[in-house]
Each structure stands twice: as structure tokens, then as C-alpha cells.
Amino acid sequence: MLVKNDRQKQKELTKNAILKVAEEIVLQEGWQAVSIRKIAEAIGYSLPVVYNHFENKDAIQEEFVRNGFNMLAGAMQSTREKYTEPEQQLTQMALTYFDFAFSNSAYYKMMFGLGIPSCQKAKEIEEICKFSGNIIQVISSLMIEADEQRKYLKFHTLWSILHGLTSINMVNITAAPDEMQQQILLDAIQGFIKNINR
Asked: Which of 10, 77, 107, 131 sits at a 20 to 30 Å CA gap from 155?
């Protein structure tokens, strides 16, 4: 049993080392620079060892997507629980989203390397469902009449606002957003809330 536990622990350590190196490559050179060969060289393992953990580069990205959305969903849920009014919840969740993106920029870039995940992909990845479900519940509580189609329309509108503003700021600045960028985000969210029932 002890040998099995040691093997499992070693497997987890190797997997984490692979992800850590991939994260460093993304931060320094961008996602396009990530390769299985480069990761293997950086951690000092052979290619088969890396392939034993991840079938290909896409599998590494999917792991980052899962981990990233799990972290983001947790941060959003924690923020939501601090406030009782839906308007406050949505506003603070938007700020949390912004903060998460800049505090975890490597994850964020990999989570959205190919744009916002499609509806089908979002349904397949539990962590994305957890993230979106949190926001949809708050949006629903702000809507007077909320059929499923309108809830999803408003959710995608809000997500587009959040991702769009985050992406613009990631391209233009290297540090966390300043007060002006946060004011732009708050203005956009207040406009979204004001027009949610139109």
C-alpha cells in the first residue's frame, strides 16, 4: 500500500511540474510557444513521461481550463456569499472576475486562449458549468420575467462584457488594472443591471 501511495504522490508531483513549466512558458512566451518537447526538456524528463500524463498540448490546455474555472468559480461563489442584494452581488462578482484575471494571468490566458468556450464545451466541463451557474442565478434574481433563453442571453452578454474589458486591459497594460479601468468596468456593469429587463 505504501508503494502505491508513493507512486501516486510521484505521479501528482510530475503532473504539477508539467503544469508549472507550461504556466511559466505561457507567461514568458505565450501559449503558442508551449510544446511537449519544451516541457520535457525544462523538467528534465523524457517525452514519454510527459505523454504519460498528457496526451498532447490540448490536454494540457484542458487541464488549465478545468483548474482555472474551478478557481474562478470558487472566487465568484465566495464573493456572492458576502452580499445579499443581487445588484451588489453582480457588481462585486464582476470586480472579482477582473481581479482573478490579473492575479492569475497565465491561467486566464490559457482558459480563453481560443476565445470564450462554446456552449457545447461549457456543458462538457463541470467547472465552467459551476462558474456560469453562479452568475446565472444572480442574473435570474434581477430579472422580472426570466425564461431560460433570456437568462442565457443575459449571461452571455455579461460574460462578453467581462471578458472583453479584461482582454483589452491585458493587451494594453502589464500590471493590475488601475482605478480608471475599474471605473469603466463598474460603469458597464451598472448599465447592464439597469437594462437587464429590457
From this structure: 107
